[in-house]
Amino acid sequence: MSSAPPRPRLFAPLPTRGIWTSLDLTRGQFLAILLVSLLLFTFVDGPLWSHAHASHFWRLTLSYLFIPPAVALALWRNGKARLLPTLVGHASNTYAVRFFPPILVSFTTLLEPVLSSLAALAVLGELPPAEEFPAYALFAAATLLFLAARWVRSRRSRAR
User: Fold this and answer.
1) Could you write out the DSSP letters of every residue in 85-147?
2) Which of 5, 24, 102, 114 is the most buried (most CB within 10 A)?
3) Per-domain residue ranges for the chain?
């Protein structure tokens, strides 16, 4: 009697390592925080689709305000709480939005891993793993492309 080959799975298994690994969260914690934040954005003050052209300031604010305490709580539960850096990082981004366009702040936060790795290299002599360099290049390229597009757009608007 021959055994039939196993049936292929319709979906691949979920990854066990990802962005949540570097944050010291479990995959379930990361996905739960992401899901609740998205649900808050989508359903606060009525469904998002019923207010398509309205200002979404409060939706964004509430969904973003949920993330730091949820991450802090998850880290505390895991015994790896880093409350102060989480709050300072979030507060600095929120404060920067007062002076710069939110899209600019969100794009420049892409450079955080690059800048923190450069700081770790300069201060601690700690070199990041080589497999992270392509991601750093993508972060820097996306930010530079965005800033260049903004610069070109502002030059064109001044010329008119």
Assistant:
1) HHHHHHHHHHHHTTTS-HHHHHHHGGGHHHHHHHHHHHHH-PPPPGGGHHHHHHHHHHHHHHH
2) 114
3) 17-99, 101-160
3-state secondary structure of 2: coil
Report the pLDDT value the prediction gives residue 34, as an integer from 0 to 100: 92
Per the listing, tokens 């730091």 go with 68
CA angle at 142 for the pair 138 and 145, rounded to the nearest 5°:
135
| Model confidence pTM above 0.85 | no
d(CA 23, CA 26): 9
Structure tokens at 26: 């479990």
149 vs 93: CA distance, rounded Å: 22
Helix (H) or strand (E) holding 71: helix 57-78
As a whole number of angstroms, the distance between CA 137 and CA 131 comes to 11
Scanning the structure block, which residue is given the tokens 């965005």?
Answer: 146
Contacts (Cβ under 8 Å, ≥6 apart) of 92: none
Low-confidence spans in the chain with pLDDT less than 50: none
In Å, what is the CA distance from 54 to each residue of 46, 47, 49, 64, 147? 12, 12, 10, 18, 27
- Residue 121 pLDDT: 85
